[in-house]
Amino acid sequence: MKPQAIILHASGTNRDQDVAWALELAGAKPAIVHMNAINDGTHSLLDYQMLVLPGGFSYGDDLGAGKLWAIALRNRLGADLEAFVDRGSPVLGICNGFQALVKSGLLPAYGGSSDQQATLTRNESGKFECRWVALDPAGNSFWTNALDPIYCPVAHGEGRFVAEAATLDEIESQGMVAFRYRVGSVAYPADPNGSANHIAGITNPAGNVLGMMPHPENHIVAAQHPQSRTGPTTGSGLPLFKNGVAHAALS
Amino acid sequence: MNYCVEVVTKQGCRDTRTDDLKGQIELLGIPGVDSVDIADRYYLTGSISAEDLGRLTDSLLADNIVETATSFPLGEDTGADGAHSYTVDVVLHPGVTDSPAESLLAGITEIGLAGVKQVATGHRYTLSGQGLTRTDTARIASELLANEVIQSFHINEPGRSPFAAPEAAATGAESISLTGLGRTQLAALSNERRLSLDGDEMEAIQAYFDGKGRAATDVELETLAQTWSEHCVHKTFRALITYTGPPPGAHEPIETTTVDSILDEHIRAATETVAKPWVKSAFVDDAGIVALDDTTDLAFKVETHNHPSALEPFGGANTGVGGVVRDVIGVSARPIANTDILCFGPVDTTFEELPEGVHHPKRIASGVIAGIEDYGNKMGIPTVNGAVIYDPGYTANPLVFCGCLGALPAGSHPTEPQTGDRIVVLGGRTGRDGLRGATFSSMESDHTTSELSGSAVQIGHPIHEKQTLEAIIAARDERLYNAITDCGAGGLSSSVGEMAEDLGAIVHLERVPLKYPGLAPWEIWLSEAQERMVIAVPEDNVARVGEIAAALDVEMTVLGTFTGDGVLRIEHNEATVGEIECDFLHNGLPRQRLTAKWEPPPRQETDLEPPPDATETLLGLLTDPNIRSKEEIVRRYDHEVQGGTVVKPFAGAAQIGPSDAAVVTPIRRHEGTTPGAALAVGVNPAYGAIDPYRMAWAAVDEAIRNVVAVGADPDRISILDNFSWGNPRLPDRLGSLVRCTQGCHDAAVAYGTPFISGKDSLNNEYTGVDGRKHTIPGTLVISSLGIVPDISRTVTSDLKNAGNHLFLIGTTGPHLGGSALAEHLGFDGGDAPEPVQALHGYRALHHAIASGLVVACHDVSEGGIAVAVAEMAIGGARGLAIDLPDPDLDALSACFSESLGRLLVEVSPQHAAEFAAAMGKYPTTRLGVTTDDQHIRINGSNGSAFIDTTVAAVTTAWRGDGTA
């Protein structure tokens, strides 16, 4: 049976359907469910095997990217969400979803803390950036297991990963960095936002919660590649979803 | 009690917003600002305990990793002392959309706090520097920090309450007797209420109410003014015009003829003549509709939002995008791509040159771009194509064209409201924002416009529109409504009025959910508050629509009923405040009779002596704002969301080369053949100054050429016409418009390309304090939508390999009039490019592309062959060596001429012969080869290098320092 994946739709998220397609191609059965439907009891998070928080501008990002969504997640889903994470089910937050995971304290969440330990703030360029980036996988979670580098777009104004030095040390030493922007001698725009240590994505210490700013769901078929006529014949973002779905199938 | 929470960036963390602001202050020419700090301020009113205030501050307002927050009773803070340091507090006027405030209220509810009644947001800027004066600070505040149309600012003061005193509930409608008023008095009334109606129109209204034997109400007068506005009804395009000028395309003889509506005779006639079976809807609905394939239709619309963008660039462009997106939702389609074409004054305009009351072009550009970015990105619609044009003619009247493409299941757009259907409004609340927008945008402007019509300007709320979209799509898929339209100019008065045209309706204004109390009935009825859609719902389906809306956080109102009696009846608290027969509302407008005159402008063709250095000229052209890379703008737009962008705005491995068109597909399919839609524009106002007829031909040809270049089928292209012009009551302005629509007709028919929608924005005129009138160059934008049969058979402009052949298709003539070269070097280049018949060439090229013979293709337009090959080299990071196409043409013309019907095509050696054969009778010239030596060599007729430069040099010229 295909693993059931829930894509949470908060008012203003907008890559819900992009992710749904990626999950379908990766072998899951996705359902896009509005936060209101979780609230009214018609859907239970724990009935699903995988959770994705998609990109967009939840509630307009007016109080800081992902901030209000983070509060709503804690408020409405708190216990279920912790149970879901604790049982090891895969959780993926992309872009706005990553911001919400970080601001709700679900990432990096080292030392058993549920406080906000890091942030994603305004890009160093001071601008929204939409461009393709190369990502080198790192860490030892199932997400990046045997994963080739991913080439996919970023599209965000608040993607600069910032944390205090001690936090960064923890993240690095515990192997929680999942993706780094591949930079040459000049960091920008290969690292489009000026993130600490060029971090593009991190996991929790257990490795089942992944957050990342770039959009692997927008490179799941060859036609999406900028050089699709002469370039590779598959989408390099798809294997990441396959890794997540394969892990979801185990539970 | 009022409180303020102030959030500042932590010591040691960087606020990237301040860098940009410091740069802008320097550009204002104000030295001596050493530091700028920006604090976000949140104002709260209500009975709030200290504990609650602390909780709210900690959990909602500060990102504790990089920010710190403090809270205090409002007024207990102090401003700076003015000794080298100044504070500027900026807040929105009460009633202006404040979406962060809405979000904060939602957050307060989420964390379960009671007692907060109202919130508002603003900023405190602290500027410091040894030489800084209060006068300088005031200038920085009014030029950069606040726009007094929507905001107020205070310098060096404690925080002030941004909340308005509560208003009393509104009274009913006002009665206005028209009986016995003469033409002058009627004109005065029109002027006083800003109805923008002329003597004939006011007399028709007077006769109508005299016939009924009663006075009009304010609701009725305002309804008629909106419905009869140029913006809504396109009086000029429907007028009977006496035109004096030469026949279409010719220069003589000058004769006087009658044009019985340029819309019917020139635009619609072309669509009818070409009669394409795949056109599903043209000029009837909110957007034009064509078939993509058997199961999917595409809807396309381009709107202008010029007047609002001049006053409040962010809000104007923001709601421009929101408005055109609603047009597409208004034909039951999901938006899949946005486009934008922007015309600004030169960014290096000095403040001395700027007419009073006009924002600097840099401020307008920066606000407009931010407004487009905000709306498109937040709605999750990729912004994939557009153009930016800088010309002094746009300094006082910037132009903002916003386009939107949507997709819908074939035949899923219902258009017939039924008697008894409920009038259902979905979306945001109604306030006093956007009053009289339709009439405002139909008037000329001057330095008082911002005071008189400031209320016409609004700020959008893209998240409301996104959720409303999802609700509409769900209702469409369940077939819950019989008709739909968007709420745009004129607000409910226009949208309900239009839907009720055949049936009549009764509406109950007190049911409209308001942002705040105090609105008079006419204000509720006219408000252009954004993000609202109107649908006609059978009574049995209303509850289901309500469920869908509630699940998506969308508010629904049942406003009234379609009655079937042909009367539009408007009630407020059970009193009738308006009652107009739909027949009079929609057919009572007296037809305008206008006079138009066009004659060829005097010619002063000049020679270039001595001839300029061609290599330097090319490098100079590449740095021209109208030609150089627009990457720093385009990368701020998300062009990847929805995952369907196949040909992107930039081409090549480094993605820095320009694309001629974007290709998007709404179809998520990973196997087999997927069709897509190519989007492009054609626009060249400089040709219009020479001959608007030729401008139209050039724009149509360019728009078609651009989509063919990426792989669209030339027999499956539809186009939109958008006209921004001056005052049509001035015969010269209208004359050039008539001449232009003649060209539109002839070109569309020649290419077999139907117009499916369009829009005109007239009266783009600004009168300065000195009485000087500033008008725009008559500007035609042609937007093309081409069907790409197979998205795997698309082509981009970047050179792909060394050793390939480079072909030119089409004929190069001496066409430098209105060219980028003539503009750059400041000479009269003579005639604008003459019309060509290139359809058979485009068909042959399409066949070659579809057969896989073409590896790169690029349109030849501004800057001619020289600029086009440079752009191909930039995208591909490869060199080339070519000969000029026509040995009989002087080398400068051959390089820089802008003759129509031409493209450059890269073909591999093994396909070269097949390609040349495939082009048949269309002129096809092998110019040379691509190389791996990073040199660009264009040889003159004597074989010596006429242009000799490097890929690095042209890349630097075109991209600047490349940090975009």
- Name the overall outline of chain B: globular
**What's the CATH H-level homologous superfamily of chain A?**
Class I glutamine amidotransferase (GATase) domain
The helix fraction of chain A, in percent, is: 25-40%
Q: Estimate the strand proportion of chain A.
A: 15-25%
What's the CATH architecture of one domain in chain B?
A: Alpha-Beta Complex
The largest inter-chain interface, given as chain pair and residues per side, is: A-B, 60 and 65 residues
Strand content of chain B: 25-35%
The number of helical segments of chain B is 31
Summed over residues and divided by their number, the pLDDT of chain A gives a mean of: 95
E-strand count of chain B: 42
> Tell me, what's the shape of chain A?
globular
Tally the beta strands of chain A: 11
Q: What is the subunit arrangement here?
A: heterodimer
Structural class of chain A: alpha/beta
Strand order of the largest sheet of chain B: 19-21-17-22-20-23-24
User: Can you identify the CATH class of chain A?
Assistant: Alpha Beta
Gyration radius of chain A, in Å:
17 Å
Q: In CATH, what is the homologous superfamily of one domain in chain B?
A: PurM-like C-terminal domain
- Can you count the helices of chain A? 6
Please explain how this structure is put together.
The complex is a heterodimer of chains A (251) and B (964). Helices cover 26% and strands 22% of the residues of chain A. With 251 residues, chain A is α/β, with parallel strands linked by helices. Chain A has a single domain (4-250), classed as Rossmann fold (3-Layer(aba) Sandwich). The mean pLDDT of chain A is 95. Chain B has a seven-stranded mixed β-sheet with strand order 19-21-17-22-20-23-24. Chain B has 31 helices and 42 strands. Among the domains of chain B are: 2-155, Phosphoribosylformylglycinamidine synthase subunit PurS (Mth169, Chain: A, 2-Layer Sandwich), CATH 3.30.1280.10; 175-236, no CATH class; 795-964, Alpha-Beta Complex (Phosphoribosyl-aminoimidazole Synthetase, Chain A, domain 2). In chain B, strand 23 (567-572) and strand 24 (575-581) form a beta hairpin. Classes of the chains: A alpha/beta (251), B alpha+beta (964). The interface between A and B is large, with 60 and 65 residues.
